Amino acid sequence: MKRNVELVVISDVHLGTYGCKAKELLRYLNSVQPGTLVLNGDIIDIWQFKKSYFPKPHLKVIKKILSLATKSTNVYYITGNHDEMFRKFTDFELGKLKVCNKLCLTINHKKTWIFHGDVFDASVQHSKWIAKLGGKGYDLLIVINNIVNWFLERMGKEKYSFSKKIKNNVKKAVKYIGDFELTASELAIDNHYDYVICGHIHQPQMREVTNKKGSCTYLNSGDWIENLSALEYNDGTWEIFHYDEHKHLLKDDSHDEIQDINSADLMKIVTSFSL
């Protein structure tokens, strides 16, 4: 049975890359019935897009999102840096699907500000080629990590994350994450928001930030490459959903819910955005 969830936020899926855990995301999306679904940037990775690599599970995720939008779910696609091509379609609406650069909602009388977060990243704003090169290196690291974890699982050993190890041991990376969270929170406080929700840094988080001007709750939905996480809001409470903690409860349902959308036609649409 599907769980009814008032609001679901996911980000940094990076469909079209080797690191994307599309099958796991599809299982999660098939397990919930959200009233509102917010896609907070970097859902389709236009930077790394290759016609030769866009597997069926990746297409099924897009189909599932479209299926939700054709039924009872309000879907907001907030653009990020890896899918910045969609920014030319800002304010485009198709049924219950809307493309936007940021989203402001009132949730249980609380002002909520949702945006991807790449606006804080100087490497994206001023040296895009460096950021793209870094993205390719990260993708390669994930491929190697997946191979290593395949062997570790078969030896009965625990999985290992190269990038998490690097982030946790490199002071600059730790400082960047802390600065990112603090900057987003202080801006939210200045603008009288109760919640600020970001993606971009692939770090699921929920924390209270207080300064002399006030306080707010900072939240980050994480990613679907390593953390496999989402934000869920229900009955006045925010929670971080971690796939690995709940996967034993999720039904392995690969049923394609949209029979009237041809995968080849959908692939043509995706390809056209990457050009």
TrEMBL record:
Domain Calcineurin-like phosphoesterase residue range list: 7-204
Q: Which InterPro entries match?
A: Calcineurin-like_PHP, LpxH-like, Metallo-depent_PP-like
- Supply the alphabetized keyword list: Cell inner membrane, Cell membrane, Manganese, Membrane, Metal-binding
Origin: domain of life: Bacteria
User: Which Pfam families does this chain map to?
Assistant: Metallophos
Report the PANTHER family cross-referenced here: BLL8164 PROTEIN (PTHR34990:SF2), UDP-2,3-DIACYLGLUCOSAMINE HYDROLASE-RELATED (PTHR34990)
This chain belongs to which protein, by name? UDP-2,3-diacylglucosamine pyrophosphatase LpxH
Please report the organism this UniProt entry assigns to the protein. Chryseobacterium camelliae
